[in-house]
Design goal:
Length: 280
């Protein structure tokens, strides 16, 4: 396995299993190549040892920094982000995949690779940049993916009993929040079980009562309480005063061969002579 510095851990809510994201290269690289492992935790037996088992082989680009392979509450389902490409890990989009533990033995298949029947696709053709379980739910995910290189969209996805390739059941958040990048979604239906106001008992998501944080290329992070499909309450967050003086503008330029360039301009609201122009 790689050096400890390049291993990221994620434990299921019940504390019975842990996934490991192991990066291939000790030095951070653009390809972000890695593999996913799983460990059955020994529990209260302090003398017991746990041996990691490889979930994937040839995962290609994974989610660096952890969070790329998440377990449901009881540790029977693993959802992972990977592009399964060893030849082009940088330019191949990362989709979501599901692995399920055997209903009899409780063990996950080991060292799965592209084409294995055990690896079920949830999304196709979407470059996933962030995802997670909707808080308190055992079979519902939220995910954010890139659109047109700059914009992001977020959707809510119910993981079915058996995933079907090419037919993800996305429920998009209403405009304009589909073009925002979310960093967490919780449902406000049901009883609160903690500080994150999660749903108790894995209740299904009520899309008329969602709470999440969102930001876009031109809007700073804010809190959103989605009351109905077309009604939301936005709560502004405090930001550094220096940021409030910056104006963000997205411009589109058409180049040769029908190429479109979309730089993000950061300008001070008050224009100064010889002021710095920052393009991203």
């Amino acid at each position: 396995m790689a050096a400890t510095k390049n291993i990221f851990l994620q434990m299921n809510r019940n504390g019975t299993r842990c996934t490991l994201t192991v990066m291939k290269n000790y030095i951070p690289e653009e390809g972000e190549r890695g593999e996913y492992f799983i460990v059955d935790l020994p529990g209260a037996d302090v003398d017991a040892t746990a041996t990691p088992c490889a979930l994937t082989t040839g995962a290609g680009r994974v989610m660096d920094g952890g969070g790329g392979c998440l377990l449901n509450a009881d540790g029977s389902i693993a959802v992972m982000s990977a592009n399964l490409s060893l030849d082009r890990p940088i330019t191949t989009t990362c989709n979501l995949w599901v692995l399920r533990a055997d209903s009899t033995s409780g063990k996950f298949p080991s060292a799965v690779m592209h084409g294995d029947a055990a690896l079920e696709p949830i999304t196709t053709g979407k470059d996933i940049v962030e995802f997670g379980w909707v808080s308190g739910c055992t079979d519902t995910l939220w995910a954010t993916w890139v659109v047109d290189g700059v914009h992001c969209e977020t959707g809510v996805l119910a993981v079915p009993a058996r995933a079907t390739a090419g037919t993800p059941t996305w429920t998009l958040l209403p405009a304009p929040y589909t073009s925002y990048r979310c960093s967490g979604v919780v449902s406000l239906g049901g009883n609160a079980t903690g500080a994150d106001v999660a749903v108790a008992g894995g209740a299904p998501v009520d899309t008329s009562s969602l709470f999440f944080t969102a930001e876009s290329a031109t809007v700073y992070p804010q809190l959103v309480h989605l009351l109905q499909r077309d009604q939301a309450v936005v709560v502004a967050l405090p930001h550094r005063s220096e940021l409030l003086d910056v104006f963000n503008e997205l411009r589109y330029y058409h180049g040769r061969h029908q190429a479109v360039v979309a730089p993000l301009k950061h300008l001070p609201r008050e224009r100064f002579v010889n002021a710095v122009l920052l393009l991203c």
